Amino acid sequence: MSKYDIIVIGGGHNGLTTATILGKTGMNVLVVEKRTLLGGMAAGEEFHPGYFTTGLLHDTSGVRLDIIKELELEKHGLKVDKNRANVTILCNDGKSVTIQPDVNATATAIANISKNDSVAYRAYHEFLNKISKVINNLMDNPPPNINVDNLTMASLVVLIKKGLILKGLGNKTMMELLKVAPMCVADFLNEKFETDFIKAGLAAPALYGSYAGPWSAYSTINLLLWECASRCHIKRGPQGLIDALQKVAQQANVEIRTEAEVEKILLNPEGAIRGVQLKGGEEILAAKVAASCTPKETFLNLFDPFDLEYELDYWIDKVRGRGTTAKVNLAINKIIEFNGQLVEFARTGNSFDEMEKAFDPVKYMEVTDSPFLDIHVPTRSNPDLAPDGHSVVSVLVHQIPYEFKAGWSVDTKKKLGKDVLKTLEIYSPGLNETVVGMEVLSPADLENRYNLTQGHIYHGEHFVDQLITRPIPACSSYATPINGLFLCGSGSHPGGGITCAPGSMAAKAILKSK
Amino acid sequence: MSKKYDAIIIGGGHNGLINAAYLAKAGKDVLVLEKRHVLGGAAVSEEVYPGFTYSVCSYVVSLFRPHIIRELNLAKHGYDIIPMDASFQPLPDGDLGLCRWGDAARSRREIARFSKKDSEVYGEFSKVMTHMAKLAKEVIDHPAPDVASINPKELSSLLRMGKVFKNLGPELLHMNTKLLTMSSADFLDLWFESEVLKGPMSVSGIIGTFLGVRSPGTAYVLLHHYMGELDGAFRSWGFSKGGTGGVSMACANAAKSFGAEIRTHVHVAKVKIKNGKATGVVLANGDEINSKIVISNLDPNRTYLKMIGEENLSHEITAEIKRFKLRGSSGKVNFALSGVPNFCKKRDGLEFMQGDIAIVPNVDYVEKAYDQAKYGEFSERPFINIVIPSLTDPTLAPPGKHVMSCFVQYAPFNIKEGAENWPKLADKFGDAVQDTIKEYVPDIDSLVEHRQVLTPWDLQETFGLTEGNIFQGELTLEQLLFQRPISGYAKYKTPIDNLWMSGSGTHPGGGIMGSGGELSAKSILKEKVI
Q: Using an 8 Å Cβ cutoff, are A323 and A461 in contact?
């Protein structure tokens, strides 16, 4: 007789969400986390004595408000601003524009640079508002079952409903959505805007975590998903979310074990889940396992190869998740400014050509000298993260390939750190002399530290064939062909980033499966 | 009072001629007007240099719909295809290269030289692709369903399409999603490991597009290679006897036999529009010809912005048509040669050169060619697809001599210097092509008697292909099906009553398929507008 009803592998935000929802229904839940600290990519860490980040990822705009409400996270210390945070787009000529939650304020700011773009920005937002319902409906519900083999009446109804929501947009908006969604983001924004650096800054989120440049087709879908789904901002960043999640998990009697690395998922002779085996040999039994680690880690590393059906093994192996992100954390001994402004979030890119040129070497397993940066200054709103008067600059560096011909080593990382500093220096002259500590995490480091297959921050690329049927058709509804095994991480619908959505929908699928 | 035709067709390309043939066959009084002195549009043969017949633009035939051949009795009118049996990829350093043959076992033996594993999955891959190609044909052979409509007819045609997909089963459906969205390089990576094999296979995905083999959305175009259908056999490509113009001449002869009138050297300046209705055409010399309907075989850009004119269009429609992307990416270089250019001296005979020859030693090679083009330069080392049709059709060149036709990518229409400066770069472009070939055929310079260089600018100026796009518009998903050329007007109609379209800029797109002309004519006849 096993003590637990279910074991959740991984104590990141999705794992904790799944565990808590299940715990609240009275199930006996155990979360096993490999690291000493909870939170996964959302965990804040001390990277230099006295200097802290708020997580590997820093964008909390996509956290689902419904889940915050359902788990009563605000009662447990979560502070959420129901607006997106300001993001400043930096240009290398010293100009900048701050994108604010208020469309009018943003349009006014843009008007200083270009009157046309200011008008275009309003129109762009009108379009986003129109389609937002469709996109959020997609984000907040399990994926429609398009497995034609067992297309039931109920799933057909869901499909038809989705179709009707799309039709509900009206013909004009629907046709426009169908027109622009497959476009490359450069074409999409070139149709609307004229200022290079504004276009580049607006496009950037479409390329985060993507094996794509701005000229790659289908990148517009990612931009629309991000723009429509991001609606809030969590104070104290991802770590703030984890703190609250941990509290509600405890209240739901979820047991959490850190420094517990799963080595194997155990099956009984019938091929159903029996439990897990930790490194060191300890076996923990449960008839259900929910894995929040990557699908490839789950199926290809935690099972014996002979445990899996060939088809399952084959398709999981084909899931694409080529990491293209590195992280550089800087400890700075002054209050940092970029282009003469105090900012918390900033993006660089300058132009589509520059961004595309940063992507070009990725294809040949090489690294660009001029990456584009997604900058977070957590000390701007939370000075406690560094000594008085100091700053933390935490940078997600994009278009840095996991597959690197020269290999990731101390030397190549040093070079990467140098190139990032060189780029930052353009926007904050003198920055170099103020750096007192620095941590460079290559995509290979991300793989090791967070168990991210190939260092991919979203557990698999957000690409058309890996959305909706994410990660593969046979596992797209959180259940898997293995009896008792569920997926609950970023590798499942609706995908990566800090949203809690896969965790929540997986929990519901698990409850339904009883 | 001059004569009033039932229909005037602007442009004597193969689609226009097929349209004319179908309408004339149905007893309509049809007039085709072609601006140039020769018929065929981009499917044309010309003796540019005495004694040598070039397939000036389009150089192979494969997608031509067999039912059109039957329905118009084209074989009787001179439609004659010489099948291509080989697809050769030379490699530098005197390697044997890789030749894929019509005979699958023979191909597998060649592939095994580079990867045993690849030779084993090659057959499986072809099987899956052929299956998918059958599906794609379903899409090609019918007008695109209108997704915005709730008309039961439209819905049933959507359902019919849905049913085809349903019948695939989940595995193939998933594969199909991948095929429709992935890059051709990524898609091939699902199967193969050898760069030598993946190189030439991947380029099938980029011909005529301004995309690289690593650009998402290019895998779908791979299907075209498996859709070629000659005498019912998949995957077969061929040369038209006497050059590609032979196809157009067969179409023209068929049209004439049904009573259509065809005039060359007639330059249409505009469609005559009265009260929002097309009533005929106005020629460049000011003459007018009247007709009940007008059918434009020109690309969407030319049709809307030149033939109709912005003054006759709403702002919305004008804006939509200006969004339609053309961006040509290729050029063409035709050679008259004094002897056989040998692409591999180690191989016996010339059989391996009787099909197409692809200069693309690996995937990175062609992707790097694209990278250069993205920033407004032609590729110094381009992907070249070469055919030497005179090896199988001696009528094309004097005895012992040959014509060599090179399709070259990338040559972006919009170069840094500005498109109008292409003529100044034409020679340099031609040299880049010749120099690239020289790496495989060291004595090429001494063989060249004449060289014709067609830059994207020439394709626009001479053949009327806006921005030199050989498909009259990019074949990207947002420009296909119900959105080709713009949504609401994807069924060969235009915002102007009685003005129809039929070229490659309409569904199902470019290549010598004849579908645009056929489906347009059938729609016109079905609606009984004439």
A: no
d(CA B411, CA A271): 57
Residue A262 CA to residue A276 CA, distance in Å, equals 7
- Which residues does chain B have within 8 Å of residue A171's beta carbon, measured at their own beta carbons? 148
A94 CA to chain B: closest CA distance, Å?
25
Select from A211, A465, A466, A469 the residue whose CB has the most chain B CBs within 10 Å, as the one to mutate to test that interface.
A465
| Domain residue limits, chain A | 3-74+237-320+460-512, 83-230, 325-400+405-441
B279 by DSSP, 3-state: which? Answer: strand
Terminal Cα-to-Cα distance of chain A (whole angstroms): 18
Q: Is the dihedral of CA A468, A471, A473, A476 positive or negative?
A: negative
Assembly ipTM:
0.89
Please give the backbone phi and psi of residue A345, each rounded to the nearest 5 degrees, phi first.
-120, 135
DSSP H or E segment with residue B280: strand B277-283
Q: Low-confidence residues of chain B, pLDDT below 50?
A: 234
Taking Cα atoms as reference points, which of A488, A453, A492 lies closest to residue A470?
A492
In the CATH hierarchy, which fold is given to the domain comprising A3-74+237-320+460-512?
FAD/NAD(P)-binding domain (3.50.50)
Q: What is the largest CA-CA distance in chain B?
A: 74
Mean pLDDT of A320-324: 96
Most B CBs within 10 Å: which of A363, A368, A468, as the mutation test of the B interface?
A363
Sheet holding A345-347, edge to edge: A96-99, A87-90, A345-347, A372-376, A391-398, A325-332, A435-441
Q: Give residues with Cβ within 8 angstroms of A109, minimum separation 6.
A: A97, A98, A100
Which structure tokens are listed for A238?
């991802």
Phi, psi of A143, deg, nearest 5: -65, 145
DSSP calls for B131-161: HHHHHHHHHHTSPPP-TT---HHHHHHHHHH
pLDDT value of residue B150: 62
Quote the pLDDT of residue B74: 95
Say if residue A167's pLDDT is above 80.
no
Q: Is the entire prediction scored with pTM above 0.80?
A: yes
pLDDT of residue B232: 54
